[in-house]
Amino acid sequence: MAEINEITPNEEKKVLNFVQQIVADDLAAGKNGGRLNTRFPPEPNGYLHIGHAKAICMDFGVAEMMGGTCNLRFDDTNPQKEDTEYEQSIMRDIRWLGYDWGDRLYYASDYFPKLYDFAIRLIKEGKAYVDDQTSEQIAQQKGTPTQPGINSPYRDRSIEENLDLFQRMNAGEFEEGSHVLRAKIDMASDNMHFRDPIMYRIIKKPHWRTGDKWKVYPMYDFAHGQSDYFEGVTHSICTLEFVPHRPLYDYFVRELAGDSAKDYCPRQIEFNRLNLTYTLMSKRKLLQLVKENLVSGWDDPRMPTLCGLRRRGYTPQSIKNFIDTIGYTKYEALNDISLLEHAIRDDLNKNANRVCAVINPVKVVITNYPEDKVEMMEMDNNPEQDGAGTHSMPFCREIYIERDDFMEEPPKKFFRMTPGKEVRLKGAYIVMCTGCTKDAQGNITEIQCTYDPDTLSGTEGSTRKVKGTLHWVSARHSQDAEVRLYDRLFAVENPSAESETDFRQLLNPESLKVVTNAKIEPYLAQVAKAEDKFQFQRIGYFCVDPDSTEGHLVFNRTIGLKDSWAKEQKKG
Ligand code: ATP
Ligand code: MG
Fold first, then answer.
1. Average model confidence (pLDDT) for the chain?
2. Residues 132 and 53 grouped into a single domain
3. I want to staple 358 with a disulfide (CB 3.0 to 4.6 A). Which of 141, 333, 406, 519 is the partner?
4. CATH number, domain at 332?
5. For the segment 333-370, what is each residue's pLDDT rounded down to a tens digit?
6. Same domain assignment for residues 155 and 250
């Protein structure tokens, strides 16, 4: 039997969340013979997003924590929207998060024969009937939570007629929408889901796994609970919107299993969905963004999809840490995206090497530095990590700094480069600005400085204090790179709440700026491989995009060093 004390010492101190507590109590009480089996049941009709990650961390996480197993089951009951492209991406993304279903890969479509047989049995028992009405008519008869529904005129068809019609529905004799199979339960039930729910509908599009074998397909509500049962799932953990469906799932399992459902029935436990500010999680809308080329694809670094977050530079650990922070509750909430951003900043601060890159370069000439001289400066890889080592960066007479780091006529408290003042060049010398050159339009084309040879970093002279330290790269040795400056995809805090406005109007027009002539230090040009993550000193965290080729590196901004949105909000 799986015991809670199998938890590693590190996790032992952790307080269980309410779902884990229920599972632990069931295990302690010896339910299901001490077995723990969860499942993650995606529909292969889109890519996984950060909301799914919350469900995955729960389903796989609790099994891992308490010595159980977790199935991956594709809920592929609707051939109209499903595809193997989605299936493959889902498997890749779950593995990327660090979870594995082993040999427990299942498909609801594998249960189509069993579900069909069960439907036939319910018809024979007088518990299901074929309805010839349209879905609109059926919806009109449904009633309201306070008003009972109206029985369908087809509700009392003979068993023979129902059997004949259902088999002909599946043989392809009828058009889509002309007939459905409904459970005959109770049109006056307090629970709307019991008002003769639809079990099967006709779909004439081939299924990506079963081809055109079937013309009738089970509704999710007729497939889900029984699929859990067929697989021996002990704890069926899902999101809160399924609370009112739970009694129906239990009803179908009782009908299916009879008395043995007393010994074993999957236990459904619901938790709150993840909703994030400045983000949409609807798969339908995400698909629309992709189809209409409003983003570059499902893995656009602005998308809340796991492949988008990966391309943006998020790590699996940062996503797990974020999900731990927000936790699992019984109440719907809107979580602040800055918590997710904090999680990746925190992770990369510990783990990303520091390098120099200048995004908006302006040239600086150090007029008293010899023309041909090159010095190799030693730069720390990561001061947050013992043993991260150093790399060297060439320094010479001409360098680049950020345009923003120079002002000819600065306001008070500007401690960067300005005529007549000293600043330190990170890892190198203190320089004094002596002037600048402008073009006919007044744009600064070059800045002049002199350096103090006694101030080399790491030597005695370097103890002299100046107020500002700037990052820089050598003009002669640096390479050009493309930098994609990503920001939040939506401009409004809760895009789902703006039901009056087309969600495409709510996109942040500033969500991507592309810089093609950023300058990067030679070390970075040499080591950068797709998906590598770096801190660009004083700027933020960047990740190498898979679009990079030999000689043309592309970097995606994961996140700035500081929460600039928080600052803006304070400013008002
Ligand atoms: P659909 O509207 O297509 O059903 P869905 O987001 O529910 O979309 P599924 O593929 O059915 O997609 O989701 C698989 C699992 O992930 C479900 O158990 C669902 O409860 C869970 N899930 C989906 N979205 C979220 C979310 N935002 N937060 C937490 N769990 C989620
Ligand atoms: Mg769903």
1. 94
2. yes
3. 519
4. 2.40.240.10
5. 999 999 999 999 999 999 999 999 999 999 999 999 99
6. yes
**By the 8 A CB rule, do 517 and 303 touch?**
no
| DSSP class of 522 | H
Q: Is residue 336 a part of any domain in this protein?
A: yes
Residue 476, domain member (yes or no): no
Question: From atom 26 of ligand 1, which residue's Cα is the shortest distance away?
Answer: 51
Residue of the nearest CA to atom 8 in ligand 1? 283
User: Do 65 and 193 reside in the same domain of the chain?
Assistant: yes
pTM of the model: 0.93
Question: Which H or E element spans position 90?
Answer: helix 84-97
For residue 275, the ligand 1 atom closest to its alpha carbon is 27
Same domain, 317 and 338: yes
173-213 pLDDT, tens digit per residue, is 999 999 999 999 999 999 999 999 999 999 999 999 999 99
Catalytic residue among 39, 73, 209, 283: 283
Note down the domain range covering 161.
Answer: 12-271
156 found inside a domain:
yes
Q: In this structure, which ligand is nearest to the CA of 328?
A: 1
Residue 356 Cα to ligand 1 middle (Å): 41
Q: Please give the Cα distance from 572 to 567 (Å, whole number).
A: 9
**Number of independent structural domains in the chain:** 3
Beta carbons of 181 and 130 less than 8 angstroms apart: yes
**H-only helix segments in 327-481:** 337-351
Substitution site in 45, 93, 238, 239 for ligand 1 pocket (most atoms within 8 Å of beta carbon): 239
How confident is the model over 523-534, as pLDDT tens digits?
999 999 999 999
Which residue has the CA at smallest separation from atom 9 of ligand 1?
42
Contact 51, 281 (CB under 8 A): yes
